[in-house]
Design goal:
Strand order of the largest sheet: 9-10-11-12-13-14-15
Number of helices: 15
Order of helices and strands: HEEHEHEEEHEHEHHHHHEHEHEHEHEHEE
Shape: elongated
Number of strands: 15
Structural class: alpha/beta
Largest sheet: 7 strands, parallel
Distance between the termini: 47 Å
Helix content: 25-40%
Strand content: 15-25%
Length: about 425
């Protein structure tokens, strides 16, 4: 079967649809691709694997192992593994809190080359997440295979990072195949072309060093000079003068316990993270005492409120009520799920925002495209956003962005309620 015939089959099984569809990013797209349905059509799934293998041969890709991006690409990788006797490893979306606690499962050796397989690419973000985890285990990635390239910038973005993308189909190849059979009219084709042209992922020039490399080389003083938010500048000053990047979570339920902890460790930290709504006897006298300790020991107060409501409600939650958070906290956390309205509402209130790009809880939905959308949102609202909560460093255009790692614990690896702790060594 040819690539054209595959495109027609994907439309027939409704893996490709046309109309008006709201994507996870919030964009309205005239085309929707849901390749998860392919697992219900064994002949189509087998054809996908075979055509992908042929594309890899034509592209002269060399690799020792396969790894499918979880979860939709796993059946594709498995098919190639079985039909061509190529070993495979599996990447978990999150490590188990028991057993070996591995992210990469399977038998492999450091230095082996691993092919990453994905079903669909838009920005390449989910591919890069998988590459990071493979690299941590000593595996080398040079090539990426994908069933459908949405032609929105992933190919250029991956090339910039040193990866070659091998695609079985592109959006326009699918469109051309359906057009030749009279399935699509000119108006729909024009809508698709316009959508693709207006929704491209922009990438930095290839000669520009990647953000991650430049950040690694910068001192806290250099990052402070490029930071636009006064709270970010102050935090970098503290980190530089005290030679610490430690943030301690004061997850305690009484004023006395929080204040004692702050006074005891204040000289060693750059921020103290609080949860005001779990303190049984919270009052504004406590807030003032905590502010006094932050000045005494030179640290910032970070209220981990995780705001996630509409803009007006978030303004009220921050400035009113029992806690009046804006009057004593310098840094707060915000979810991206409610959209940019939340960040618009925080403009001018004096607090700095850490957006939740990832979480350390088991089964979190803050992964993949959602994480990439949060990063984009942060770049659009740099007047409020100074960084991100993430379990690992993510690719981010701004060299001054902070990344705070959640769930770091010396002793436990979990709390029995879904939290997955990392050790400082991790």
């Amino acid at each position: 079967m040819t690539i054209k015939e595959l495109a027609l089959q994907l439309h027939k099984i409704e893996a490709v649809k046309f109309g008006e569809f709201k994507l996870r990013s919030g964009m309205i797209s005239p085309i929707y691709i849901d390749l998860r349905v392919c697992v219900s059509f064994p002949k189509v799934l087998a054809l996908i694997g075979e055509l992908m293998f042929q594309q890899l041969q034509l592209g002269n890709a060399k690799y020792d192992l396969l790894c499918g991006v979880p979860y939709t690409a796993l059946p594709i990788a498995t098919g190639i593994c079985l039909h061509h006797d190529i070993p495979m490893v599996v990447r978990r979306k999150e490590a188990k809190s028991y057993g070996t606690k591995k992210i990469i499962e399977g038998i492999f050796k450091q230095g082996q080359t691993c092919l990453v397989i994905e079903d669909l690419v838009t920005t390449g973000g989910s591919v890069l997440e998988t590459v990071v985890d493979l690299n941590k285990e000593g595996l080398v990635v040079k090539d990426v295979a994908v069933l459908v390239d949405r032609q929105q910038g992933a190919r250029a973005a991956l090339k910039e990072k040193g990866f070659t993308l091998h695609s079985v189909l592109t959006i326009m190849e699918i469109v051309d195949a359906l057009k030749s059979e009279g399935i699509l009219d000119e108006k729909m084709i024009q809508n698709i072309q316009t959508f693709l042209a207006q929704n491209q992922t922009t990438t930095a020039p290839s000669q520009t060093p990647s953000p991650q490399k430049s950040i690694d080389k910068q001192t806290y003083e250099e990052r402070a000079s490029s930071a636009s938010h006064p709270v970010a500048k102050e935090l970098y000053r503290i980190m530089n003068s005290k030679k610490t990047n430690l943030v301690v979570a004061a997850d305690l339920t009484s004023k006395k316990a929080v204040l004692e902890l702050a006074d005891k460790i204040g000289a060693e930290i750059c921020m103290l993270k609080t949860h005001a709504d779990i303190i049984d006897d919270f009052d504004m006298d406590f807030a003032q005492q905590l502010k006094d300790l932050s000045k005494k020991h030179d640290f910032l107060i970070f209220e981990d409120r995780k705001f996630a409501d509409i803009g007006n409600t978030v303004q009220l939650q921050l400035t009113k009520g029992l806690h009046n958070i804006a009057s004593w906290a310098s840094v707060i956390t915000v979810h991206g799920v409610a959209g940019p309205g939340t960040l618009k509402a925080l403009h001018g209130l004096g607090v700095a925002v850490l957006l939740l790009a990832e979480m350390s809880s088991e089964g979190t939905l803050a992964t993949g495209e959602y994480t990439q959308s949060v990063l984009k949102m942060g770049e659009q609202y740099k007047d409020s956003v100074i960084g991100y909560i993430a379990t690992k460093r993510l690719e981010c255009p701004s060299s001054s962005s902070l990344f705070c790692t959640p769930g770091v614990q010396f002793a436990q690896k979990g709390d029995g309620l879904g939290q997955q702790y990392q050790s400082p060594d991790d």
